[in-house]
Each structure stands twice: as C-alpha cells, then as structure tokens.
Design goal:
The protein has helices spanning 2-11, 18-41, 86-90, 137-142, 147-150, 162-173, 176-179, 197-208, 225-228, 254-264, 282-286, 309-315, 347-350, 364-367, 374-390, 412-431, 447-457, 462-469; strands spanning 49-54, 69-73, 96-101, 107-116, 122-136, 157-160, 186-191, 214-218, 230-237, 245-252, 270-275, 329-335, 354-358. The protein has 474 residues and is α/β, with parallel strands linked by helices.
Length: 474
C-alpha cells in the first residue's frame, strides 16, 4: 500500500495532503482489487468469437462449400505449433468465425463456425456463408471498431469481441452506419473548470449519435430518481378541451425515455448525457438501475432488475421480463471535482464507469482560435495557474482554457468584465481563498480594489495589468 501511495504522490498528486492521498490510495487499491476479482469470475463457459486466417497459397476458404466441414491442423507444415496456439484449445463447438485470407487476397471471404472442439491435433470448421463481395483489409483498418483487431493478424486463430464480430457482419451486409458505435458505454469526463469537458463530449456525440437519439440532463442537489427515471404521477389529460381532467400515470424521466427508444430502435445507438453528475447524489438518483451499469463484453447489463408494473408497461416489457440496459444505450457524463458542495461518488459507483481526464491545457490550441482576446486571456490563465501550482493548489482548482466563453473573448468590454467578475472572483473567493499571499501582489486588498486596479492598468499590453495584480511567476 505504501508503494502505491508513494507512486501516486510522485506521478499524479505531488501537492495533495496525507489524508486526501490516503483516501485516493484506498479508492485506487479497492478499484484494482474489484477488477481482478471480476476478471477471475470470467470462466471458460462464455461464448467466443473468432478470426481465422488462411494463406491462399496453401488453402483457401473459397475451396470449401457452404455446409462443408474441414479439418484444420494445429501444427504448420514444419510440425511446429501455430502462433497463438492456446486459442485452439479454447474454441468450442458452435462458436462463430470470421474467415480472412491473407495476401494476395487480403479480405474477409466467408463466415464459419467451430463444428467440433479441438482434439489436441485439429479443430473442425463448418463454412456457413460465402461473402459475395470480399471485405477488404483497407476497409477493416479504416473502421474504428475493427482497426485494432485487423492491424495485428500474424498467426492463425484470434479471439474477437462480439462488437467486432457484429461490426464485420454489418459491414458484409452493407450496414456501415449501424455498426459505427463507440466502445465506452458508461463514460465520465472529468477535470478542472473550463477544460472543455462538455465541448469534447458534444463533439463525440455528434460523431456517433443522431439528435433524435440523444437526450441531455443536468444533475443538481435536489434531483431525485423520480425525476431521472420516472414516477407514477398526476398528469393533465386533454388539456385545453372541455374533457380536460387530471389522471394518474407513469411520467418518464430522461433515463426511461432514452431506454425506451433504445429498446425500440435497436440498430441505432442512443445517448443519455448527464452534465455535472456529482452535483446530485448519483447513486441515489440511479436507485435500482445502479445495478444495470455493470456491462458485459457485448455492452449489455450483466445483471437484470425487476421494475414496477407502470415502468414495465411504459417500456413495453413482457410479463415476468427483467430489465437490462441494451448494448445500444450509452450514458456519458461530465464531472467537475473542483465544485464546492458537491456529492462524493462512492467507489462502487465509480468502478462501473470509464473515466477520461481532461488536462488543464488540453484545449489550449482550440482556445487560441476562439475570440479576439483569446491570447490575452490565455496569458492571464497560464500565469495564475503557475502561481496556484507553486502554492500547492491542485490542478482541479486551476483554470482550463474555456473557463471564459467565446462570447466573453470577442469584445474588449466583455473581456474586462469577465476577468473581473469571473476570473478574479474565482481566484479570490475560491481557488486561492486561503493562499492569497501566494497569488496576489497585495493580499490585503479587497476584491473590489483588485478589480478597479486591473481596469485602471489594463492597456494594449496585458502584462501591465497582470503585473499590478498578480505576483511574478517563480
């Protein structure tokens, strides 16, 4: 534990207090432990998907008729074990195969299945489909879901994920759009304020999801599971008519609406975006659906839950059916750990998500293209961040490039007001509240005095104003 703690201190948290670092270390060790236990639970009973590679100069899938069974030896012509030999022992009867022929063909030419388990010397393969138009290696390497698998195929038999297998089948059938899905289904982007978390998430969402299959919600301290999932509530029917009346029924929240759409349009990916996920008690907001966040390798929930009759009826579930999240439902969120008064997210909830960190300067280049006063703002930002870092203030309290918006960087008057009303206020009242002497040239000045001083000294050279307000960089 002490070695882990020291490594975290050196590489990621050099200025964190001992108490905070101990908590981070415990969370990290707990998470890794859970991942190891989860991996151990995976047994050899799961269905696998295979990529089988042949050399046309030796044998070809095209020489085999659909329905015909052929023997494939586990040893090459020299009598040596084939590369990735252990995969042959894992293959079970009935498991599907993508059949790829290497150069000069360089394409997927057929589909097949394992017809008999390995006898130690051979496996037996039944061809199930001939591909009329071979799927070329170039097309496979261009596709985001298959490029990794087909970039390294030196050998004979390789395991594929179900998503990779399904993608190849979609491509064979010409359904390119339906197969272009991102791999991370539960994703949280986190980082300091202004690092572009929402901007990056919107870019990814536009790339993969259509607007009609995307819904956005912002968590807040009063947000509940009834708001998020849905609840049995009074509703007004036939509003504005003589038959207007109040009745009771299931009123869906954003989670239920996206889930229903995903269950209906199963060939299209659906996205629920949660802004500021840690500004509510996330585990409580998800309630029982918390269990559904554990996904298997196919992207579906590992565990199912029972739901109320009203919720089941809304989703169109059959009698006795248990609820799972379908593989085409994605939940992405943003989180700003620098916010005050937010709810902590417990380890059990965290481990069901993929986390992507947005660094303090990752969006710097994008900022410099955004507004007439972007360079001046970046100069102030980097200067203040350097002082905060030197004072031991953690990165999540520093300012990202988009702490100020593009509109605030277009006109000089708006820029000056934003520096005073947002930047100086944030530094004075939040980020450097207890370390003002490490940031401001005169720590005894009131906030209003700092604003007046900045406005009076601001000119063509932004350095003049900075010099009057902030300490020089160390």
């Amino acid at each position: 534990m002490s070695e882990v703690k020291n490594t975290l201190r050196e590489r990621n948290f050099p200025h964190t207090s001992e108490t905070e670092l101990s908590a981070i270390t415990c969370d990290f060790v707990d998470y890794v432990g859970m991942q190891i236990l989860e991996a151990k639970k995976q047994t050899d009973t799961k269905d696998r998907y295979w990529l089988l590679v042949s050399k046309p100069s030796i044998w070809s899938f095209n020489e085999i008729n659909v329905g015909e069974i052929v023997e494939y030896t586990l040893f090459n012509e020299a009598g040596n074990k084939r590369r990735v030999f252990e995969n042959f022992g894992k293959a079970k009867k009935g498991e599907p195969i993508i059949c790829y022929e290497s150069s000069p063909t360089g394409a997927v030419v057929a589909l097949a299945e394992i017809s008999e388990k390995s006898n130690g010397q051979s496996i037996f393969i039944r061809k199930t489909k001939a591909v009329d138009t071979p799927l070329s290696l170039d097309d496979l390497l261009k596709h985001p879901e298959t490029q990794d698998r087909f970039s390294k195929i030196q050998g004979s038999l390789f395991e594929m994920s179900k998503l990779q297998y399904d993608t190849v089948v979609h491509l064979i059938d010409g359904s390119v759009e339906a197969s272009v899905w991102p791999s991370k289904r539960n994703l949280i982007r986190f980082g300091a304020p202004g690092t572009g978390k929402s901007h990056l998430m919107n870019q990814e969402a536009e790339k993969y999801f259509s607007p009609e299959h995307t819904e956005r919600v912002t968590f807040h301290p009063e947000y509940t599971s009834f708001d998020f999932i849905g609840a049995y509530k009074p509703t007004v029917r036939y509003a504005g008519t003589k038959d207007e009346r109040v009745s009771y029924g299931f009123v869906p929240g954003p989670f239920a609406r996206v889930l229903k759409s995903a269950r209906t349009a199963t060939t299209k990916p659906h996205l629920l975006i949660i802004e500021e996920i840690n500004r509510a008690n996330a585990a409580a907001v998800f309630a029982d659906t918390f269990q559904l966040l554990d996904r298997n390798e196919n992207g579906e929930s590992k565990y199912s839950i029972g739901v109320s009759e009203e919720f089941a009826a809304y989703l169109g579930m059959k009698a006795g059916e248990k609820l799972v999240l379908p593989k085409n439902m994605y939940i992405w969120a943003t989180m700003n750990s620098a916010d005050q008064g937010v709810f902590p997210i417990d380890t059990a909830f965290k481990r069901r998500w993929h986390f992507t960190y947005c660094g303090i300067d990752d969006a710097r280049d994008a900022l410099l293209k955004n507004g007439s006063f972007a360079e001046k703002w970046n100069h102030i930002r980097e200067h203040a961040n350097k002082l905060l870092q030197n004072a031991g203030v953690q990165e999540d309290k520093q300012m990202g490039p988009f702490f100020l918006s593009g509109e605030e960087l277009e006109h000089e008057a708006d820029f000056i007001e934003a520096i005073c009303n947002k930047v100086l206020m944030y530094l004075y009242e939040d980020a450097a509240k207890h370390k003002r002497s490490s940031l401001f040239k005169d720590a005894n000045k009131r906030y209003s005095e700092l604003c007046s001083l900045f406005k009076s000294k601001y000119g063509e050279d932004i350095a003049d104003a900075i010099e009057e307000i902030l300490l020089p960089q160390p």
